Amino acid sequence: MPIDPRRMRMLGACLIAALALGAAAAVPASAGPCQLYGTSCETEKEHAEFVAFTDCPFGVAEANLCSWAHSTYKETWPSTKKREEWEAERGRPVPGLLSEFKAGNVTVALKVPIVLQGGINAEGETDVWFGAEGAPTIEPAAEAAAPLTKDVEVSKLSPSELARYNYYVKIDKETKVTATVELAGPPSAIGVNINGLLAEEGTAFSFPVKVKLSNPFLGSSCYVGSESDPIDVAFTTGKSGELQGKNGGRIAFDKNGYIISIVNSTLVADEFASPGVEGCGVAGGADEAVDASLGLPSPSGHNQAILNGTLKVALARQAKEGLEGKI
Prior knowledge:
Elements: H1 5-24, E1 35-37, E2 40-42, H2 44-51, E3 65-72, H3 80-90, E4 100-103, E5 106-109, E6 115-121, E7 128-131, E8 142-144, H4 148-151, H5 159-171, E9 178-183, E10 191-192, H6 194-199, E11 205-214, E12 223-224, E13 231-235, E14 239-240, E15 243-244, E16 251-254, E17 259-269, E18 277-278, H7 287-294, E19 304-315, H8 316-323
Antiparallel strand pairs: 1-2, 3-6, 3-19, 4-5, 4-19, 6-7, 8-9, 9-11, 10-11, 11-12, 11-13, 12-18, 14-15, 16-17, 17-19
């Protein structure tokens, strides 16, 4: 049954109201061992809860919420029974409580947390995202990818590129490859819908991204996707293709009510296309060989992204006061 748009807007309004009410009911920090931060005496743990918002765009008046999120990776399942029920219902093996990115033939386990930080204006008809100040909006995280020997179809290399390849594989033995997800374009290109995230309906976050493949043979500018031809990933906590997300089902208050955490959420995307690589090898001389091995370009329906993690939100003015030690 479709969710009433007015109800969805109310969910976002309730989130903001909950923060305001939580702050109003906040109690002073415990009387245990603490130190002075500004004008407030807090334990290190209590003060650290605001540190996530250090790079919130406080200079942007329109950003009324500070947001910080990070992905998690855990190769377990709650129980054998639940695993079997999940597999029976969907007719495929479970992905696990993990985060991963799949494009074409390659799957990258996102074991290093992906951190997203910035600000949100949630007061209008459409939520608006603002990039972080003083730090990347999406923190680059180099993840272990398939080794060079699986990333390159050597039969498609020119003689000069094949000679380089053989040197790095057989002599220098530089076969490790990392994959780093980067934002393709300005932070304003990020789409956010808090109501969609809470209601498990429609797109919760959308990102234009590119993935940098790093290895001495591949060079310093080998990318899947680019600024002009990005991978457009629309994440949902609802259903996307054969993947099912969730909003976590639990909202927790931190810092005596000033911070809301939406924990154990799963964002999924199963309906995006991936372009081929650019800039691999000398002057792109290995592009064709890498595309052939990785199965790129890859159409919609053949790529997947799963992000498990936690989202923290606070009213911007209270996050600022918390960092200044005033609350």
